[in-house]
Amino acid sequence: MEWTRDATYNEEEGSVRFFLRGRPIVLYAPTAIAETYDMLKVATAPQIRLKLEWVYGYRGRDCRSNLHLLPTGEIVYFVAAAVVLYNVEEQSQRHYLGHTDDVKCLTVHPNKLLVATGQAAGHDRREGRPHVRVWNSVSLHTLAVIGIGEFERSICCLSFSKADGGVLLCAVDEAPDHNISIWDWQRGERGQKITETKCSADTVVAAEFHPMDRQSIVTCGKSHISFWTLDAGGTLYKRMGIFENRDKPKYVTCLAFTQTGDVVSGDSNGNIIVWGRATNTISKFLRGLHEGSVFSVCVMKEGNLVTGGGKDGRLVQLDASLNPTGQETRVPEHLGPVRVIAEGRGSQLLVGTTRNCILIGSLDLGLTPVVCGHTDELWGLAIHPSLPQFLTGGHDQLVTLWDSMSHSVVWSKDVAEPVQSATFSLDGSVLIIGCTTGHWFVMDAETREVYSTHTDGAEPIQVVKFSPDGALLALGSRDNNIYVYQVSEEARKYSRVGRCMGHSSFVTHLDWSTDSQYIQSNSGDYELLYWNAGLCRQVPQSSQLRDVEWASNSCTLTFSSLGIWPEGADGTDVNHCDRSHNGELMATADDFGKVKLYSYPVIQPRSLCHTYGGHSSHVTNVSFLHDDSRLISTGGRDTSVMQWALS
């Protein structure tokens, strides 16, 4: 949509007219602006900027071997398009933000300084192609960007060579043939591919260079383990592991190497198998150590092994001869089964789970969670009215209250229904939680007691908001209606006033006027409608309300936010916007994983902004904390929550 061509300003009416997906949109300028409004003026970006301060979450549900301890004392892992370096003792985070889409795999160089990370195919055809980035974990400087245009789909496995000091990099992608490629990654800025061949028609879950034998690589996955040799001429040869008459597993799920160079594999039958060094045959077989899959095997410095169960959640210690030592512990069930085990400081273990938690501890003292996250699509976000806290709610049925200063979970509750929206009462004592089923709860924000449950329609409650005087509650539904309730007994009692009917598509956003008389709302087909809230009646002449003052500006389609629509926008691009409490800034969340910051009001079709990456899927929500010191953003399918400092 070429704005300046499409958009027209009618000076008599004081209205801007433009098209979104072929629909004419008419927005009325406030009287004070209308007389001098110049549509061709370019608005400058704000002087204030965002800096990513904290990332909440971890991707354990479907990624492997993505948790390591660095010599800096930081643990390194990823979620969304961000790689997080987290020092648990100092409670500090740094972030590598070179990727443009979901990071899917991570490996640490034998020098423990360099890291390689691989990403999925992204939104942007040019920018978002799958590739590998090699970077310095101290300076966060990128050393090489490898394989743009060479990989199909995502990269699922990465390994630096070890016996030669890490000159080579092995990568496996998620193309139908799961190609395995070997790179001389230091050759130029883009590396040089030495060889590439089909790895397996089946899923590949791990690929590792042998720590002692330079030419040797081991891969495993669905119904296979393969032993590869890279010959002097740069050709890869494969030998399949022979299970003989032992029960061949559906999946070989993980790999490790003992200190004598044998290969250890775990599989979906709960077995641990040792393959003799430089052979493709079984030298030791430990049957049924775990119930269900063994998702991780970690060989410790002193030679013991620790295995992790993907169903039973147990961590079991074995000695070098594969005999259980009797030392074991279990991850608490609500934190999920084990996805990955890595060595921490001293005798500590790092454990990542399939419910996106990271725990630190030991077999004798047990494990403590240090990172917790959502495990499904994330839409609900509510800001506490007076404390530095915020609440998130997801389709994983979890509602979590976070403290932005200590970067920790205050509490988390399973509400047994997928959550779509949430808001605090004016004093912060009561929460309204809107679900995808049309149910909504009234909940005590401290005790988490549910006072009452209500039902409006059978579709998701997209948005919930109290009027500024606290007397009314409006709920916008996917069933095209806005339901209005009278609020009494300190926001604990609700009686329905009526419903606002008139939208021809689902309600996406709503705002209250500062005098609590009116509601403005947007819908899925780009309407902006106005309502007399107490009567639940539409105000058909929208020009009459051009000078109304709004208590918030979360409607993306208003005169004061028209500049947030990019050229060529189709309306679904901008999922959410929020005006800062001081009225000087507007932040937006879009379908391309970007958070943007504008000067408010955003009334010029050409408004410049600052743009920030970190999320990978659509960003579903952005909100300023009560004192405008921070901005919180939620990722949809990437399940992450990001906290940005304003400076």
From TrEMBL:
InterPro entries: Beta-prop_EML-like_2nd (IPR055442), Beta-prop_EML_1st (IPR055439), HELP (IPR005108), Quinoprotein_ADH-like_sf (IPR011047), WD40/YVTN_repeat-like_dom_sf (IPR015943), WD40_rpt (IPR001680), WD_repeat_EMAP (IPR050630). Keywords: Cytoplasm, Cytoskeleton, Microtubule, Repeat, WD repeat. Its main location: cytoplasm. Residues 92-361 form the EML-like first beta-propeller domain. It is found in: Cytoplasm, Cytoskeleton. Gene3D superfamilies: YVTN repeat-like/Quinoprotein amine dehydrogenase. It comes from the Eukaryota. GO terms for molecular function: microtubule binding. WD repeats lie at residues 371-412, 454-495, 500-532, 612-647. Residues 378-645 form the EML-like second beta-propeller domain. The keyword Phosphoprotein does not apply. One of its GO terms (cellular component) is microtubule. The keyword Transmembrane does not apply. It holds the Pfam family Beta-prop_EML. GO terms for biological process: microtubule cytoskeleton organization. Belongs to the WD repeat EMAP family. This is Echinoderm microtubule-associated protein-like 1. It comes from Cryptotermes secundus. The lineage of its organism: Eukaryota, Metazoa, Ecdysozoa, Arthropoda, Hexapoda. The gene is Eml1_8.
